[in-house]
Write a structure and sequence with these properties.
The protein is α/β, with parallel strands linked by helices and about 210 residues long. It has one domain (about 5-210): Rossmann fold (3-Layer(aba) Sandwich). It has helices at about 35-40, 85-90, 105-120, 145-155, 170-210; strands spanning about 20-25, 55-65, 65-75, 95-100, 130-135, 160. Strands 2-3-1-4-5-6 form a 6-stranded mixed sheet, sandwiched between helices. The structure holds guanosine-5'-triphosphate and magnesium ion. InterPro entries: P-loop_NTPase (IPR027417), Small_GTP-bd (IPR005225), Small_GTPase (IPR001806), Small_GTPase_Ras-type (IPR020849). This is small monomeric GTPase.
Length: about 210
């Protein structure tokens, strides 16, 4: 299968030596995955639905005063274009699971995406953000804000209702995901430090015992 890879460099942010974050956008076809990324990267809203096969975008931003190079993979919502799924599920460091508040089926599929991430990665602590898009279409709403929050509680992840059309909460989604990745890394570092302190104190005790 032919895979289209689009590389877009944005000039926001700072130096090229900052940490790179591999983010993956997941969700049913037509929920607005590409529109969210477009708005985030280039402040543009695509009116038409042009089904994605696979696109990659790069941008540099600052999050909490720290630079971040984002490598964002826009995936296919259509089932026939999902051949690469396992590869990007393994390679990604953080995932945006999106649905449309106007499409209950896409909301039900969100749980399926979470299970898929677990099935491939075999860990419960993969950084995830849940997104209910098209919040501007309130008159077509099929999924309440409370249901979205409830699912996010179940996933133990941040939740945003976004509008790619109006650029509501778009930056917040990406910032929250990078924060999650950073938090997880900080926990790993703290865990390693604790382990090293424990083994250090063991050897110190042994040394003291010998000296006595
Ligand atoms: N009103 C409104 N329309 C939106 C919003 N986001 C996306 N759309 C529209 O929904 C349609 C699908 O958007 P896409 O971004 O192409 O959806 P997608 O999830 O990338 O779809 P696939 O690539 O097929 O998986 C387009 O016509 C968009 O203009 C939104 O926040 N509000
Ligand atoms: Mg798309």
């Amino acid at each position: 299968m032919c895979v289209a890879v689009v590389l877009m460099e944005s000039s926001r942010g700072t130096g090229s030596h900052s940490r790179e974050y591999k983010l993956v956008m997941l969700g049913e076809g037509g929920v607005g995955k590409s529109a969210i990324i477009m708005q985030f990267i280039s402040h543009r809203f695509p009116e038409d639905h042009d089904p994605t096969i696979e696109d990659a975008y790069k941008t540099q931003i600052r999050i909490d005063d720290e630079p971040a190079n984002l490598d964002i993979l826009d995936t296919a919502g259509q089932a026939e274009f999902t051949a690469m799924r396992d590869q990007y599920m393994r390679a990604g460091e953080g995932f945006i699971i999106s649905y449309s508040i106007t499409d209950r089926r896409s909301f039900q599929e969100a749980r399926h995406f979470k299970e898929l991430i677990y099935r491939v990665r075999r860990t419960v602590d993969t950084p995830v953000v849940l997104v209910g898009n098209k919040s501007d279409l309130a008159h077509l709403r099929q999924v309440s804000m409370e249901e979205g929050k409830e699912l996010a509680r179940e996933f133990q992840c941040p939740f945003f209702e976004t509008s790619a059309a109006f650029r509501y909460y778009i930056d917040e989604v990406f910032a929250a995901l990078v924060r999650q990745i950073r938090q997880k890394e900080a926990e790993v570092v703290r865990g390693n430090e604790r382990k090293s302190r424990r083994s250090h104190s063991f050897w110190s005790r042994l040394k003291i015992a010998y000296m006595i």
